């Protein structure tokens, strides 16, 4: 998350607040744990893409997440024939 923020800083010539980033990430990971989800981190490529296409608000990240969720829901069945061990190896 902090690496993503530093990369974003270099592209936008702005400075992030590390404490705010880490508090937000920690809170999000604690809440996701309550639902049995895995912890998350900043997505560097998504951030860089948003900056390069001129995104100016956090809404661009929300839209990106919703599109990704839609793709996973629609095309998720395509991964069914792949053995779970292979998917676990990719995830690690």
UniProtKB/TrEMBL annotation:
Q: Name one GO cellular component term.
A: membrane
* Residues in coiled coil: none
How does the protein associate with the membrane? Multi-pass membrane protein
Q: Which UniProt keywords apply?
A: Membrane, Transmembrane, Transmembrane helix
Q: Where are the transmembrane segments?
A: 27-49, 61-79
InterPro entries in the cross-refs: SLC26A/SulP_dom, SLC26A/SulP_fam
What subcellular compartments does it reside in? Membrane
> Tell me, which GO biological process terms does this entry list?
transmembrane transport
Per the record's keyword annotation, is Transferase included, yes or no? no
Pfam families cross-referenced by the UniProt entry:
Sulfate_transp (PF00916)
| PANTHER family cross-referenced by the UniProt entry | SULFATE TRANSPORTER (PTHR11814)
The molecule here is called: SLC26A/SulP transporter domain-containing protein
Q: Organism source for this protein?
A: Vibrio parahaemolyticus
